[in-house]
Amino acid sequence: MSTASVDQTDVSLFSRLLNLAKRAFVRWREVNRLDREQIDVTARDLNISPGELVTLMYTSADSLEQLDKRLAYAGLSEEALAASNPDELRDLRRVCSQCNTKARCARDLRHKRMAAPSKYCPNELTLRLLLCEARNERALNLPLQHS
């Protein structure tokens, strides 16, 4: 590996870390602008605890992107879930945002390793159940075939 490619890798890594830090600071500033009453009202509207709301507010968009990829790999559409199972989608987002295995998930998604999530993903069972439900729904909507 040449010195130039090592330097570019270092710069790329540094700029990604810098961007992550900037986005985290912006989220921190936005959360700190809200008073306790605003957080409580918003949390109540979303049917989550104030603590969960603050955690969600501090969460990067990467978690939602990872969830979107997980849904796609499972054969599910976020738009379809929003229409058919909005409460489950909200819970999937909440669990994903609070997950402590985001790095492993991102690595598996990057390498398209889909067999492993059942070992660590707290949303895996819900995703499987939603997929079964979607398949059953599609099967019920198929036109009858006569012999």
Average pLDDT number = 80
Strand content: under 5%
First-residue to last-residue Cα separation: 65 Å
Which structural class best describes the helix and strand composition?
mainly alpha
By DSSP, the count of extended strands is: 0
Please count the helical segments: 8
Q: What is the makeup of the main sheet?
A: none
Low-confidence stretches: 1-6
- Rg computed from alpha carbons, rounded to a whole number of angstroms: 20 Å
Quaternary structure type: single chain
Shape: flat
Q: Give the SSE string.
A: HHHHHHHH
Secondary structure: helix percent: over 70%
Plain-language structure description:
The N terminus is likely disordered. This protein is 75% helix and 0% strand. The protein has eight helices and no strands. The protein starts with a helix and ends in a 6-residue tail after the last helix.
Keywords for this entry:
mainly alpha, disordered N terminus, 8 helices, single chain, 147 residues, flat
Helices, strands, pairings?
Blueprint: H1 3-33, H2 36-46, H3 50-58, H4 61-73, H5 78-84, H6 86-97, H7 102-110, H8 124-141
How would you sum up this structure in a few lines?
This protein has 147 residues and is mainly α. It has helices spanning 3-33, 36-46, 50-58, 61-73, 78-84, 86-97, 102-110, 124-141.
